[in-house]
Structures are given as C-alpha cells and as structure tokens.
C-alpha cells in the first residue's frame, strides 16, 4: 500500500501451447492463463476475416509456448495464425517483401494480392480461363500468374494478375 492506494499485481502464466487446437479452445486457454489481447489472422493466403471462431484452427502462435510476459506495464498480445478447420496449415509464412518490389502472389487470393501492393498501384485482374468472368468476390479468386514477376521492381506500370476461382486449376500457359 502506497499512500492509501493498493497496487494490484497481475500474475500471468507462461503462454500455453495452443498450436493445433480449435480456435475456441485456444482462446479460452490463453484467457485462462491471463492473456486478454489475442489476434487471429488467416494464413491460408485467402485473406479471410475470422468471424466464427469454431470454424478455425491454430497453426502457429507468437509468442511461442512457454514465453512469459516481460513488459508488466501493458498486456502482451498473442497472435494466432489460423486456417479453416479441414484445411492444411501452410508449411511456412512468407517474409515481408521489400518496399518497391513485387511480392509473390501466385496462389493467394485477389484480396491478399490487393492488400500486398502499394495503394496507388494500377491492377488489372483477368479471368485466366478465357471466359471473361468478372472477379467480384475477391476472396473467392486466386492468382495463377502475375506480371511483373515476384521480386522484380515495381516501376509504376500496371500489375497484371491472371486468376481463377478457388477449386479450379490454373490453365497451362
């Protein structure tokens, strides 16, 4: 007690291992251990928003299992990389692309492609099947090919993305 004020100390347990669990159970385990700031991100490449936790599973977590909060002034945020139940977790999470260079977009959703490019980039999106369908629902379409190629400088010219709907095969060039 300092000058009539009681200082409460919050005891936080080490971060539990929630990788592989359903998102509902993972979030509850983290809350039970004292972690309230929990962020879930779709790492499938589709850029979906996590709405119903019961439909998702945890692939990875940051900080990792066993880590202990070192900054007692603010709550540690636990970030969970998730995919829909029934989907496979990606083998790796790609490193961020250097500014001014084209990211690797092949296999990613049109939404993720748009979010990965600088805001003023001109993007041309076409149906790679030749059916000239409109790409309306951007999480339902995935990139087959891109111009410029991944790693090439972005020079201000338009970016061309050839796409198909998820579940369709990319046509041979």
UniProtKB/TrEMBL annotation:
- In what residue span(s) does the PASTA domain sit? 9-84
Q: Which InterPro entries match?
A: PASTA_dom
Designated name of the protein: PASTA domain-containing protein
Which superkingdom?
A: Bacteria
